[in-house]
Design a protein that fits this description.
It is a single chain. The protein is α/β, with parallel strands linked by helices and 505 residues long. The protein has four domains: 5-167, 2-Layer Sandwich (Beta-Lactamase), CATH 3.30.450.40; 192-354, P-loop containing nucleotide triphosphate hydrolases (Rossmann fold, 3-Layer(aba) Sandwich), CATH 3.40.50; 361-433, Helicase, Ruva Protein, domain 3 (Orthogonal Bundle), CATH 1.10.8; 446-501, Arc Repressor Mutant, subunit A (Orthogonal Bundle). The chain has 18 helices and 15 strands.
């Protein structure tokens, strides 16, 4: 049945109701899927040479987290390069980006597929895709009717982008979306807590306030720091990274402030510290809670006055640096216990930002899983990587003590296992590839002692025991040495020296 003007007008009227942009897009794709009576519909936004799904109907939820780069998906590239309706032959040899991603259908074999590029002022802003398992489903619709759909969708998408731009005009130099970083890093998530986080990032990015980013290991604190920097007036200047937990005490001051030739044994030339490298830009101090009290005092002086003194140099240099600090510790408690300076804490936490753990944003797991599936599909050279429904259910039911980093590693490991045991175009990730049920709960991991093979003298057995304990706690701490030291109640420097003696480093 041909499309009627009345049916399209009804959709256009519905789009004028007081819904959120996301609900507008969801309404659009569901209405169009019903109108064309097809199996799957998707509205995609085009940016940075890739398509990002905004709304889907008839596809698995993880599609919303996938990012379809043009050079990896020839069908989408054909849509992007076309200025009109694209009808793919039912037996097209071009791989379909949604192969295996329509629930209940393992593979899209012979099927009908249409792509509509969406334009605003002759600029490509997105696309609509329609898939049907009936090869003849779209024969009844002519290109003029489908072009009307593209005009309707383009207007809805362009209006949303204009509103988004207006909302961000108050943020100086905010030239990119907060979710897209220049090097491809992206903050994935649409849950309420993540919407709140992105709003906070947008608010503080345009200021020049110091920010304390707190959250558990693996939640993505560095991505938040990068988004704040890119949204600031300092975006054209460097973002310099320093992991305070990895700094040996004897070189920490030099790393931060630099040194002059001859300042100490081994100082054979001048060295520029991280503060000078970040001048007029941003310095990201990760694991700030691991800095010694003496270094905290020197850091406070630079924050207060902007005066920098290299090690071994009597002269002062002024720097203009914004500090973004991150920690997985409770710094307030560290202040109370005397392990962290109260005045430095208050200087750093002018605008505190808390990144939620993954267990508090379970609805984002499908998006994150889709994002990582697409990343490792490309990395492993797979035609398609699909997360089966029961596997996604298992992921959503797991507490993820290592948060997003643990989820990413789990998907990568599962993809490697699946590739080794499956043949064919579509590689499926199954529950057995994750083996989450057999993993020990995090609170039990810290209490259980590793089994000991009793052989050798006492010194050998003691080394073996220490080696296994450190290895186990280090793994449970996501390879974070500072966190491992805290759990073992050891000085960080002593732990590094012990690990080196035991052959762990």
């Amino acid at each position: 049945m041909p499309l009627s003007i009345q049916s399209l007008a009804a959709i256009a009227i519905d789009l004028q109701t007081g819904l959120t942009r996301r609900d507008h897009f969801t309404l659009l794709v569901s209405s169009l899927r019903q109108l064309l009576n097809c199996d799957a519909t998707a509205l995609l936004r085009f940016e940075a040479q890739q398509f990002r799904p905004l709304a889907i109907d008839g596809l698995t939820q993880d599609v919303l987290g996938r990012r379809f780069a043009l050079d990896q998906h020839p069908r989408l590239e054909a849509i992007a390069r076309a200025g009109h309706v694209v009808r793919f032959p039912e037996d097209s040899h071009l791989p379909d980006p949604y192969d295996g991603l329509i629930p209940g259908h393992d593979k899209l074999k012979v099927h009908a597929c249409i792509g509509l590029p969406l334009f605003a002022d002759q600029n490509l802003i997105g696309a609509l895709t329609f898939d049907s398992l009936n090869p003849r489903q779209f024969d009844q619709f002519n290109d003029e009717e489908l072009q009307l759909i593209s005009v309707l969708a383009a207007a809805a998408l362009n209006n949303a982008l204009l509103v988004e731009t207006l909302e961000k005009q108050s943020l100086p130099d905010f030239v990119q979306q907060i979710s897209i970083a220049r090097d491809g890093g992206e903050i994935i998530g649409s849950s309420p807590v993540m919407q709140q986080l992105k709003q906070e990032i947008g608010i503080v990015a345009g200021s020049d306030l110091n920010v304390l980013i707190s959250g558990e290991t693996g939640v993505g604190k560095e991505l938040v720091a990068r988004a704040i920097h890119l949204g600031s007036a300092r975006a054209a200047h460097p973002l310099v990274y320093l992991n305070c937990a990895a700094l040996p005490e004897n070189v920490a001051e030099s790393e931060l402030f630099g040194h002059v030739k001859g300042a100490f044994t081994g100082a054979i030339q001048h060295r520029v510290g991280k503060f000078e490298l970040a001048d007029n830009g941003t310095l990201f101090l990760d694991e700030i809670g691991e800095l010694s009290l003496s270094l905290q005092a020197k850091l406070l002086r630079i924050i207060q006055y902007g005066d920098l003194q290299r090690v071994g140099d009597d002269s002062m240099k002024r720097v203009n640096v914004r500090i973004l600090a991150a920690t997985n510790r409770e710094l307030k408690q560290a202040v109370v216990s005397g392990q962290f300076r109260a005045d430095l804490y208050h200087r750093l936490s002018v605008f505190p930002v808390v990144v939620p753990p993954l267990r508090e944003r379970v609805s984002d797991i499908p998006l994150l899983a889709g994002f990582f599936c697409e990343r490792y599909r490309i990395k492993l050279g797979l035609t398609q990587l699909v997360l089966r429904g029961d596997a996604l259910t298992a992921l959503e039911g797991y507490p993820w003590p290592g948060n997003i980093r643990e989820l990413e590693h789990a998907i990568y490991r599962a993809a490697v296992l699946a590739r080794a045991t499956q043949n064919g175009g579509v590689t499926e990730l199954l529950p057995l590839h994750f083996n989450l049920n057999s993993q020990t709960a995090p609170e039990q991991q810290d209490n259980e002692m590793p089994p000991i093979l009793v052989q050798g003298d006492l010194a050998t057995l003691t080394d073996q025991f220490q080696r296994e304990v450190i290895r186990k706690v280090l793994t449970a701490s996501d390879m974070n040495w500072a966190a491992t030291a805290r759990k073992l109640n050891l000085n960080s420097g002593n732990l590094h020296r012990l690990a080196k003696r035991l052959g762990l480093k």
